[in-house]
Amino acid sequence: MALSSVDPSSAAFKKARRQYLKTTKNRNQDQDPDLTWTPFRAAEKKYKARFPPPDLRSVLDLAGVPTDRQGDTRSDDVRATRVGTTSSGTDIYTVPAVPGLVLLPSFVSPNVQRRLIRWALRDHTRHPNETNLDAHYILPPEGLWNAHLASCSSPNEDIKFIKTKASIVGASSSHTTSSGPRQLISNEAASTVNFNSLQAISKPPPEPSTSVSDSTPSALVPKLRWANIGWSYHWGTKQYDFSKGKGDIDARVRGLCRSAVREVPWEMVFGGEVWENDDWRAWEETYEPDAGIINFYQTKDTLMAHVDRSEVCATSPLVSISLGNAAIFLIGGLTRDVEPTPILLRSGDVVIMSGPACRRAYHGVPRILENTLPQHLAQLCPVADPASASTSNSDPDEDEAAITAAAARESWQPYSAYMQNARININVRQVFPKGFVPGKMPEI
User: Fold this and answer.
1) Which residues are CB-contacts of 107 (< 8 A; sequence separation ≥ 6)?
2) What is the distance between the alpha carbons of residues 78 and 84, in angstroms, rounded to a whole number?
3) Which strands make up the sheet holding 363-368, listed edge to edge?
4) For the stretch 287-317, what's the b/e string if a residue is b when 16 or more beta carbons lie within 10 angstroms of its beta carbon?
5) Of 78, 83, 95, 113, which Cα lies nearest the Cα of 330?
6) How far apart are CA 85 and CA 76, in angstroms?
7) Engineering a disulfide at 366: which of 44, 56, 140, 432 sits with its beta carbon 3.0 to 4.6 angstroms away?
8) How confident is the model over 232-274, as pLDDT tens digits?
9) Are 408 and 400 in contact (CB under 8 A)?
C-alpha cells in the first residue's frame, strides 16, 4: 500500500493552505519556533502540520523492503536492523537508536485484524470496561457500538437518546467545569519502593461535563477515544486504581501479545546490555499482560508526547497492535530533548517497547494518514487468508474456516464504514514484575 502524494490542486490542499495563512497572519516573524521547541516538539509540529504537508520520505517505513539475491528480506534504512523472522515468515526489526524497541511489520493477518476490530468495538467497549464517555454519559448496558448497530438496523423506530450524567446528577453537584486549557499532569514513576504511597493518593471519579447534551448512539461513536483493559487506569492522577479490581483480559488478545513476545530473539535485542535485573531472559515464561488501553483515533486526532510511568515493572514488554489507517509514530529518549525516530505503522503491525531505555521513552502519534485503510478492511466480503492460521498471530481456538464463517454471518459494512476514518490501537502491558505482591511488600 503506497502512500498517496499530496495534490496541490485538491480541495483539501487549498483548504489547508487557507487555514495556514489565516493562523500565521499575525505571527511574530522575529521569533523562530525552532529555537524554542524541543526536538520532539519540532517533530510533532512537522508531522501534524496540514500546510505545508509533511515530507514523509524521512519516515522509517519497513513495508515492502527489498530482497537480496539469496531471497532474504532486508532494510536499506540504517535506522532499523533485521534480527530474525517469525514462525509465519514476517520480519523482526530493532531500532538501535532506541534500545529495546522491536518492530514486527504485518505480524497480524488480515482476518485476525478484522476479528480484533470486532472485539474492540462490539465486545470490549461496554460495561464493566470503562471508556472516556462513561464519565459524561449513561451508556447502554449492551455497549455503545451495539446500540449504534441496533439503531442502524431499525431506522424507522424512535431514536433512543443516550442521557448525560450531568442531567441526572447535576442538581446535586457543586463542581464547575473549567473552561480553560486542559491541565497537564506529570506523574511520579511507579516502582516497588513507592508503590504503597502512590496507592494512597486520592483517585476521585471524574466530574461529568455540563456542556454535553443527550445524544444518539451513532453520534457518540466517533467521540469514543479509549477503553480500559485489565487493571483500571485513573486518568486524573495517571496512576492505576487497584481498588476497582482487575478487569478481564481477552484470552485471544492475551495469547496474541504473548505470541509476539515469544517470537522475538531477545538475545539479539539485549545480549550486549547489562541491567540491574536481566529479566528479559525469562520473558518467554514470565511475560503476563494484565492491563492496557484501546485507543480509538479519528483521522484528525493526535496523541502528544508522553511517557508511560505508571507500571511498577519498568522493563517488561508493552505490546502495541495497529489496526486501520496508517499512522506516524514518534519515539525518542528519556527526555524531549532527544530527537525522535519517525516510524510508519500500518494495519497489522506490532510494536514492542521493552527494557529500561524504551519503556520510559517519550513517544506519540502526531498524525493519522487519511485514505490509507487497507483493502482487506475496506471491502465488505471477508478475505481468505491462509497465513492467519499461523499459531503466531491467530486465535488458537478458531481456525480459518471458523473465522471466515463468523465474518459471513455478520455484516462487515458498519465496521468498514467506521474504519474509513479511524485507527484502532490495542496496547497491553505488565504492571507488576514477577514475584511482586501488591500490599505485602514493605516500603524500603
Assistant:
1) 86, 88, 90, 260, 263, 348, 349, 350, 392, 393
2) 16
3) 303-306, 363-368, 327-331, 341-345
4) bbbbbbbbbbbebeeebebebbbbbbbbbbb
5) 95
6) 17
7) 44
8) 999 999 999 998 989 989 999 999 999 999 999 999 999 877 7
9) no
The 10s digit of each residue's pLDDT in 178-223 is: 545 555 566 788 888 888 888 889 999 999 999 999 999 999 999 9
Characterize the bridge pairing of strands 291-298 and 303-306: unpaired
pLDDT tens figures, 137-182: 999 999 999 999 999 887 767 778 999 999 886 544 444 455 455 5
pTM: 0.85
Q: Are 82 and 92 in contact (CB under 8 A)?
A: yes
